[in-house]
Design a protein that fits this description.
By secondary structure, the protein is mainly alpha-helical. It is built from 9 helices and 2 strands; from the N terminus they run ααββααααααα. The chain has 2 domains: about 130 residues, no CATH class; about 50 residues, no CATH class.
Length: about 210
């Protein structure tokens, strides 16, 4: 048994130690995935001509009935928007990735609990998937009724040619996924070769 364990460990180390040169690929791919997400989210909040949040964004942050109902909505919208914009830029450059991951994770937590929590887990309503709540289960009949109406009164083949119709549930799924990706970057850093952080660290180590 011990010989089998030692053989496994030897193979494991020989195989995976040789892959260390490519260990920057995973954080690079995480960064590339997150860049457009945060850029689009931030640029939809911030008016780059004034560098301030759009009034519609401030209203959404402020209104307790159809928005978030947050205090200091102008400040909160400003911080959220610029965190996402600068976060996308920092992720693209691979600069201060561990530092910028923290406010981005906070933004995702606020989004999850303030915006999406009441809708459950699923982003897209699927009654057959795990964690389907009553809201998701009820969506099946509504989606079937909507499709029936479209088939009777519209060109359904054309309407569905770009993809299937779904019910947007708006659960915490995406916010939680982005949070976990950012948490991974917080621990791994930006990765080697394709980041400013990597080359700055090499420069500092060489200088020492």
């Amino acid at each position: 048994m011990n010989k089998l364990v030692r053989t496994y460990q030897s193979i494991h180390h020989q195989l995976f130690d040789r892959l260390q040169f490519a260990d920057g690929i995973a954080p690079l791919l995480l960064r590339l995935y997150l860049i457009p997400i945060f850029w689009m989210a931030g640029s939809q909040k911030i008016d780059f001509t004034t560098l301030m949040p759009y009034q519609s964004t401030i209203d959404w942050f402020a209104n307790p009935d159809w928005g978030l109902g947050l205090p200091l909505p102008t400040l909160m919208a400003f911080l959220a928007g610029w965190t996402e914009v600068l976060g996308a830029a920092f992720l693209a450059a691979g600069f201060a990735v561990r530092w910028i991951s923290v406010p981005l994770m906070v933004t995702m937590l606020v989004a999850a609990f303030a915006v999406h929590w009441d809708n459950g887990w699923q982003a897209i309503a699927d009654p057959g998937a795990p964690f389907a709540n009553e809201r998701v289960m009820a969506s099946a009949d509504k989606l079937a009724a909507a499709k029936t109406i479209l088939r009777e009164h519209g060109d359904y083949s054309w309407l569905s040619s770009s993809g299937s119709f779904v019910v947007l549930n708006g659960g915490i799924e995406f916010a939680a996924t982005y949070f976990l990706m950012l948490l991974s970057l917080f621990f791994s850093g930006a990765g080697r070769y394709f980041s400013v952080d990597y080359w700055l660290r090499r420069q500092w180590l060489t200088a020492d």
